[in-house]
Amino acid sequence: MIQSLYFDDFQLGDEFRSAGRTITETDLVLFGGLTGDITSLHLDAEYSAQTQFGQRIAHGALIFSLSVGLMTQTVRMHDSIIAYYGLDKLRFTKPTFIGDTIHLIKRVTALDAKDSTRGVITFEAEVKNQRGEVVQVYTDKVAVKRRT
Prior knowledge:
By secondary structure, this protein is an alpha+beta fold. The protein has helices spanning 25-35, 40-43, 45-49, 60-74; strands at residues 15-17, 21-22, 81-92, 101-113, 118-128, 134-145. Helices cover 24% and strands 36% of the residues.
C-alpha cells in the first residue's frame, strides 16, 4: 500500500505531474447530462463547426473536475486529506477538444500550519494538453492532517 503524504511532508516548490487523460465525446455527453449544461458549443457538432473553435469544445467545468481527479491520483493524500479547502483564480485559457489529452501540474506555493493536527496547502495548478499548451489555471487549497 502506498503511504499518504501529510502536511509535514510537503515543502514549498514541490511539484507533481499527473498521467494523461484523453477527453472523449462520451465525457462531454455524460457531463452535459449530469450538470444540465447541454449548450450547443459542447454537444452540437454542426453548430460548433460554425464557431471560432470550428468544433465542439469540452466544458471548462468538466476539465476542472477531471483535474481534481487527476490530483487525487497523483498527490498521495488518500488517508491524510481532511477537505478541499478552496478555489481561486480559475481561468480557462484555451479550449480543450475531443481527442485532446490533458495532464495536471501542481506546485506547492504556501504551507499554513493551522494547529498541531492540521495544515492547509496552497497549490498553483496548470492543466496542459498534449501540445504543452496551458488550457486551464487555478489556485486551490487543501486541508491536510499533520503527522502526530
